[in-house]
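Cross-posted from the bioinformatics board.
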Amino acid sequence: MIRKYKNKDFELVDHTADIGLKIYGKTKEELFINAARGMFYLVTGSLVTPINDKSLTKYYTIESQASNITDLIVNWLNDLLYIHVTEFVIFDDYIIHNMTEEMITAQAEAIKIKDSPNQVLQEIKAVTYHNLCIYQNQNGRWVANIVFDI
Amino acid sequence: MKNKWEEVLIQKGPYIWDIPKEYRSGMLVDGRIYASQSLLKQIINDQAPDQVANVAFLPGIVGYSLAMPDIHWGYGFPIGGVAATRLDDGVISPGGVGFDINCGVRLIRSNLKLQDLKNKMNQLLEALYKKIPSGVGSEGILKLNIAEGKRVLAEGAQWAVEQGFGKKEDITFTEENGKMSQANPDIISNKAIQRGATQLGTLGSGNHFLEIQVIDQVYQPEKAKQMGLEEGTITILVHTGSRGFGHQVCTDHLSIMQKAVQKYHISLPDRQLACAPLNSPEGKNYYQAMCCAANFAWANRQCITHWIREIFEQIFRISQEELGLNLIYDVAHNIAKIEVHQFHDSKVKLCVHRKGATRAFPPQHPDLPPKYREIGQPVLIPGDMGRCSFVLVGNEKAMQETFGSTCHGAGRVLSRGAAKKEVRNRNIIEELRARNIMVKARSKETLAEEISEAYKDVSEVVEVMDQSGISSKVARMRPLGVIKG
């Protein structure tokens, strides 16, 4: 079952034990950013947007690598997840500096959970490879299917 | 519309349904699902039977790709799946264990009866809730340096008891004595160590819980008595695992296994089943790392046990010895173990993956503590927070049919999203209170996701295993107070 989300950057896909996202992007870069936004939508239960008070903002450089683009999106999300759970932050914005099929370098903005207007409602254990795919649809949009273990 | 599985499945017994390996090219063995007619109706409307078929692709798999009656759609393996692989030419798959390595359950008994809890339940729940960190990203009170952290990974529950978190006999009543000796902390990534650093001694969130219960039905009084259980006994059930440490170990090794699948030319229908030969460096490393995570989980449940005892002592103002707070048993239900099984007229060592399945060794099995040698291994089956949980014992038939395995719980039937939709405009805490069940939860979302309707009826699941002769019911527990993350 796919529940349409009003923001068409991603949709929630029901799964008996876990949860899936169907993610869209005009470009591969946008797809990766929307995947990250979708993951933190699952974490917080709402769309996370940057806050105005930049003194609270923390900046992280994310450098993920893989042998292909589908594995790259898993590693990118797992790298963000790792920082989220060990640094106790919520990511709210992303700038991709460089990206190929095998690597991504990005700057990600976050704020401490305690300073965030968003609450952490969902623990994501990991990004899985189950039914994982990335493709370009008939309209030329990039689409990714990702299942998260929660 | 007719479900395709009605034509594929072949009934082999009152509770046994086989997926013949001809169902899909590449299956090395048949699939076998244990279920009643009514549970099967739920199961075939899920993607779980296809996942049973997928597991049958694993190189070196022997017997059947097995599924217990609580089976439901997971990732890679179905949840409720069991697969045994040969050591010489078989594989080990992190997907056959899951991210929450050694997620498991332990049951503590007491000398308390229902009337002793009168007017104390609220106080008890509040104190436990305060003492034992729970909820999303919960941080523990234990702060360990790297060297001490590595000792946890190497020694498991035995480390905890050495530190004063429990009694020596707790170790005897923990599967594997709370320590898998093949653990090798030196191969663990810094990321896993960082992720686990603050989470030892925490319950976590999701379906993890701590529950105060009363035994409301005894099916085999002699066996129950041997465990120290009788009708009216107050028990405490703890369900948690290896927390972020195990999640990161699985993440690290799944990535390695993706490359191993290509290196060893393994063909799989689902990438989450990624695996490596047991005798390859990738396979050996995963097993050693998985053992570290299993040990972390046993240390975690042991620390929580200690704090439960402390809280009961404080509230009842008598010692834990007088309270009789003894560990009945601790079982892992997400794990891979090297075990000896009878197969094709000879005893062989196999790697048994239990993904949402519980070990259920029979009487006289050498791995059982002397106290349980005559009755079989206690098997702990948690149900949902509104119904009941069970203590079973393993039977010889489990060794003959399921590589010494049985079910692990109720099994989800509604997705979390569907469960939340179901509870709109309902007050779950009040509903449970009306049934004399008090609940404390960090998050309303978790509570909504965990409603009874989200799960199969655990009684029906357990009945299948009992009637099949795999594991027998000993006692049933009714929840009185529940702490959810």
